[in-house]
Amino acid sequence: MSLLITNLGELVTNDPALGRGPLGLLHDAALVVVDGRVAWVGAAATAPAADERLDAAGRAGLPGFVDSHTHLVFAGDRAAEFAARMAGAPYTGNGIHATVAATRAASDDELRAGIGRLRREALRQGSTTVEIKSGYGLSVADEARSLRIAREYSEETTFLGAHVVPDGSTADEYVALVCGAMLAAAAPYARWVDVFCERNAFDAEQSRAVLTAGVAAGLAPRVHANQLGPGPGVQLAVELGAASADHCTHLSDVDIAALADSSTVATLLPGAEFGTRSGYPPARALLDAGATVALATDCNPGSSYTSSMPFCVALAVRELRMTPAEAVWAATAGGARALRRDDIGHLGVEARADVLLLDAPSHVHLAYRPGVPLVCTVLLNGEPT
Ligand code: NIG
Ligand code: FE
Fold first, then answer.
1. Is the C-beta atom of 271 inside 6 A of ligand 1?
2. How far, in whole angstroms, is CA 175 from its chain's centroid?
C-alpha cells in the first residue's frame, strides 16, 4: 500500500540534501509512503502516483517529535507541591519519595492506565517516539515491574534505579543494590542506563559505578547532569561516551567545550525550569560552541508535568533564545541523535514515516502560536493515529 501526501506548503525533512538549510526545507512538496517508510520526497508537481492520496491543503509537514526523556511510569500527582512552589517554596527533588510511595502502592493496571493516558496525550501533540524511564520504584521488584510495563509502550526504555536513595538505605548500600540485583532484574527490559548525578542524589563515583555496571550488563549510558547546580555529571557523560547529558542547566565553559567536542548530545528540558521556576540552560552558548542540542519534555509529576513537545519548542524559542528552526530540529533530529537512532527524526528516503501536519503554513508557528493545538494529523509508521 502506498500513500501520497501532497500539497504541503512547507515540508521539514531534516535532510540538507533534500532542501534548504539544516531543516532541509521544501515548499510545495509531496512525500510518498510505502509500507510505513518514506519512499519518495520532492516537488509536488513531480510526485509519482500512489494507491491513496492525502491533500495537505498547504499545511506544513514535519517529522514526528522524538521525546527522548520522560518519566511516565508513576502513580499519583504532586499538584500541592507545585502550588507550594509557585507560592515560593524551592524545588529540591524530595517530592520524588511521595511518587515512589504512590507508585509502589499502584497495581500493574493502574500504572498501565497512567502511561497509556500520557502516551496518547503526547501522540496527539505529535510525539511519535517517547523514551520512558523507571525511577519511581527504587526496589528490585518495583524497578523491574516499571520497566516491564514501560516496554509495552516504548522500545526506548531506561533503567533509572539510581534516581534517589530510598528511605531506609544508605547511599553505599543502595548503589550496591542498583549495580547488582536491581540491574540484573531490570536489564532485560531496558536499552539504557541513567543516573541522577546531583548533590542530594548520586556523586561522581557512585554515578560512575552505576553507569559502568549498566554498560557491563549491555545497556548504553545517559545521564541526568547539572540540573540543580554545577557538578560532575556532564564531564562523566562525555568521559563514558554517553548518548546524552540531560538538563545541562548549570554549565561551566569547560562543560560546554566538552560537550561540543564529543558525540554526547546536550538534551535540554525547559519544561523543568518552567515547572520549578528556575533559570534556563545556556542553549545559545551550547549551539554557538557547536554542541548537538536536543529538546525533550522530561514529563514527570514533580518538575515538569507536561507531555507537550510544541510547548517545549515554544519555551526554547522564547526563553532559551533558540531560533524556531533550531528548536524544531532539536525536537526531532536532535531527539533521534540523543537516542542514537537514524530511522526517525527526519523524512529522508527510508525514514520511518512518522509525519505531522500542522494547521499552519510553517514550522515557525509552533513557537509563534504557543499553547495552540496546531498538530492536526499524526502518521505513525505511515498509519493515521
Ligand atoms: O528529571 N531530576 C530528577 N528527576 C526528575 C524529577 C523527578 C521528580 O521531581 O519527580 C527530573 O526533573
Ligand atoms: Fe528527568
1. no
2. 26
